[in-house]
Specification:
Layout (H helix, E strand, L loop, with lengths): L17 H12 L9 H5 L6 H10 L5 H14 L3 H6 L2 H8 L6 H15 L8 H5 L6 H12 L8 H10 L10 H11 L5 H14 L19 H4 L16 E11 L5 E4 L10 E2 L25 E9 L4 E11 L9 E2 L12 H10 L14
Parallel strand pairs: 1-5
Antiparallel strand pairs: 2-3, 2-6, 4-5
The structure holds a DNA duplex.
Function: Adenine glycosylase active on G-A mispairs. MutY also corrects error-prone DNA synthesis past GO lesions which are due to the oxidatively damaged form of guanine: 7,8-dihydro-8-oxoguanine (8-oxo-dGTP).
EC number: 3.2.2.31
Family: Belongs to the Nth/MutY family.
Length: about 375
DNA sequence: CATCCGTGGTA
DNA sequence: TTACCAAGGAT
């Protein structure tokens, strides 16, 4: 049975063949992704563009492949090189990132692009060099080093953790099991194809060794897998229960000028939705609820109820009462600005704010990466 | 090591 | 519907 401690020694079991079987499966069943150089092309000497590898890896942090695709294409089209991204304004990058979440990534992306551009557009080709850059942590540094620079880096993401804990029946809960997982990956990674090995493990985790209902019958590693013998591979990886999310309340105020312009303001650079734009709201990021009526409106106006919207953040849920007022003043109050009429989807608005605006102005917003008009 | 940080999809 | 979770990083 699985051990709860680290007494298992990595050298106890032979691993010959695991990487080979995994890579053979990858050669035949890999996903075709916009940022990826497929194994056949890689073998014939095609090298991945480090800019694309980096951009995709940052976007993929805690974000699904399907959500990333459209944003990756939009960024690449608008900023084809890291120098181009370095020449962009942080504000434009935030606007382009709107809707993808974890907005500090966008700020760090721009900061990192500046650093790379200052080096002539050349990325560091070592794990340590990459790790020192903003927005690049242990995982991303290893992934770029392995995929773009063929370094034998130990790439461990959520997929790898799941595959490895099942393969070796590691029952120690995460994150305590991370050192053991790293040790197992370290002895599996092949020196000649570290990038493909990393991507193969992630593809396996995404399509076969899934969190729920893994398709073990189709798995190229079923003969190597310890968890499958237990009859309940889904048991792994073991994670501690997460604390339940508190529910907060507040109000949002959508002021609309007669030409359709919406009154916005910019949020502080740090913290929740840092650096993004918003319609004025009552407090709701504090531990306590904000006011839900018009008492706390940013200024006097004919505020009318426009329904309410719900939104779920990482660590709390939010219900926002939405009010709309049609106003006739031209000069924005101190700290506010008017969005360009009809261009609300071009602002750096997080999804929760688009929901509020949509409630006040049905049909005005749309999802996905913003595409600039000509 | 724990907490904070978005969003959308799935069973 | 609730609950989980996705190619994590910064502090």
């Amino acid at each position: 049975m699985a051990s709860l401690t680290s007494t298992r020694k990595p050298a106890d079991r032979p691993v010959t063949g695991i990487a080979d079987r995994l890579l053979a499966w990858y050669d035949a069943h890999h996903r075709d992704l916009p940022w990826r150089v497929p194994p056949r092309e890689l073998a014939s000497g095609v090298r991945p563009d480090p800019y694309r590898v980096w951009l995709s890896e940052v976007m993929l942090q805690q974000t699904t492949v399907e959500a990333v695709k459209a944003y990756f294409q939009a960024f690449l089209e608008r900023w084809p090189t890291v120098q181009a991204l370095g020449a962009a304004s942080t504000d434009d990058v935030m606007k382009a990132w709107a809707g993808l979440g974890y907005y500090s990534r966008a700020r760090n992306l721009k900061a990192c692009a500046d650093r790379i551009a200052a080096r002539g557009g050349v990325f560091p080709d070592t794990e340590d060099g990459l790790r020192a850059l903003p927005g690049i942590g242990a995982y991303t540094a290893a992934a770029i080093a392995a995929i773009a620079f063929v370094r034998p880096a130990v790439v461990v993401d959520g997929n790898v953790e799941r595959v490895i804990t099942r393969l070796f029946s590691i029952a120690m809960p995460l994150p305590a099991a991370k050192p053991d997982i790293r040790a197992e990956v370290e002895r599996l990674v092949p020196a000649d194809r570290p990038g493909d090995f990393a991507q193969a493990t992630m593809d396996l985790g995404a399509t076969i060794c899934t969190p729920r209902r893994p398709r073990c019958m189709l798995c190229p590693l079923r003969q190597d897998c310890s968890a499958i013998l237990s009859g309940d591979p889904e048991f792994y990886p073991v994670k501690l229960a997460k604390p339940e999310k508190p529910q907060r309340k507040g109000a949002a105020f959508v002021a609309i000028r007669n030409d359709g312009a919406v009154l916005l303001r910019k949020r502080p650079e740090k913290g929740l939705l840092g650096g993004m734009s918003e319609v004025p709201t009552t407090g709701w990021t504090a531990r306590i609820d904000g006011a839900t009526g018009t008492d706390a409106a940013p200024f006097a106006a004919n505020w009318r109820p426009a329904g309410s919207i719900g939104h779920v953040f990482t660590h709390f849920g939010l219900e926002l009462a939405v009010y709309r007022a049609d106003v006739d003043f031209t000069a924005p109050p101190q700290g506010f600005f008017w969005s360009r009429p009809g261009w609300i989807n071009d602002e750096a608005l997080p999804t929760v704010m688009k929901k509020a605006i949509e409630a006040a102005m049905p049909g005005s917003t749309q999802k996905g990466p913003h595409k600039r008009k000509a």
